[in-house]
Each structure stands twice: as C-alpha cells, then as structure tokens.
Amino acid sequence: MSQSFVEENLKAVHHQMELACQASGRRREDVKLLLATKTFHFETLQIALQAGETLFGENKAQELRSKAALMQQYNEVEWHFIGHLQTNKVKDVIKYVTLIHSVDRLKLGHALFNRGFIYFCKS
Questions:
Q1: Helix 61-70 crosses helix 42-50 at what angle (to 10 degrees)?
Q2: What tens digit of pLDDT does each residue of 53-81 get?
Q3: Rounded Cα distance, 6 and 104, in Å
Q4: 100: number of Cβ within 10 Å
Q5: DSSP code for 40
Q6: Residue 71: CB atoms within 10 Å
Q7: Taking a C-beta distance cutoff of 8 angstroms, is the pair 34, 80 a contact?
Q8: What would the pLDDT profile of 5-59 be if each residue is shown by its tens digit?
Q9: How far apart are alpha carbons 42 and 48 in whole angstroms?
Q10: Beta bridge partners of 55
Q11: Which residues contact 67 (CB under 8 A, 6 or more apart)?
Q12: How far is CA 74 from CA 31, 65, 94, in A?
C-alpha cells in the first residue's frame, strides 16, 4: 500500500470526522480515530504513524503481540484490543493494551480483574 494512498485516506477520514463533529455539536479534540490493524502489514502501520496516527486496535492476540513488538520503538503508540478475547489469552493481551473494547462475559471480566487490568471509562 503506497504512502500517498494511506495519507489521502487518513485525510479523508479526518475530514469526515470533522464534519460529523460539527453536525453533532461535539468538539473535534474529544473524538479519536482508532485504526483497526487487521490484515495490515507493519509498513502500512508505519506510514499511518508517520502521518500522525497513534491509536491502533487489533482483534487477534497473536497479531497484537507481533505488531506491538515491531512498534515498541514508538513510545507514542497506544494499542486497544477490539475483538473477541478468549480468557486464556488475557495474560498475553494485557501486556500491550490500554483498553479492551470487547469484554462480553463475566468470566472474562473476572480474568482481567484478577490480572490487575482495570479501566474506568467516563460515561
């Protein structure tokens, strides 16, 4: 994927976000773009990072582990987990993420809590 293609698409998405914020009365700085990294190679993530993106989401524990390891040199990167998380993968995932979007069962919540992964969201 070419650098110009990624940059042009990011610019278009940010423009749409700006329009949506204006239409809804929200402040643009209160809305973040989370880039889902599924199927994208490290080189594409680097282009997005160079374009100013720092918030990435992955939906597979194994992919998260490999991509986070490749991008650990970039301190400003923040990872979220956005897919179904198996309880046995909790210990692997919490090493890399600041937020898990998909806590869908009590057993998973308990496993996260038992590992010390607690995140309080503003409502």
A1: 60
A2: 999 999 999 999 999 999 988 888 999 99
A3: 32
A4: 20
A5: -
A6: 19
A7: yes
A8: 999 999 999 999 999 999 999 999 999 999 999 989 999 999 999 999 999 999 9
A9: 10
A10: 78
A11: 37, 42, 45, 56, 58
A12: 22, 15, 18
How big is the chain, counted in residues? Answer: 123
Cβ contact 10:51 at 8 Å: yes
Cα–Cα distance, 103 to 50 (Å, whole number): 31
Q: What tokens appear for 59 in the block? A: 């939906």
Amino acid found at 101? H
Strand 55-58 to strand 78-81: parallel, antiparallel, or no bridges (unpaired)?
Answer: parallel
Listed in order, strand segments (DSSP E) in the chain are 35-36, 55-58, 78-81, 97-100
Tokens of 93: 């995932």
d(CA 37, CA 82): 10
Q: What is the pTM of this model?
A: 0.89
- Residue type at 82 in one-letter notation: I
Give the integer Cα–Cα distance in Å for 57 and 98.
Answer: 10
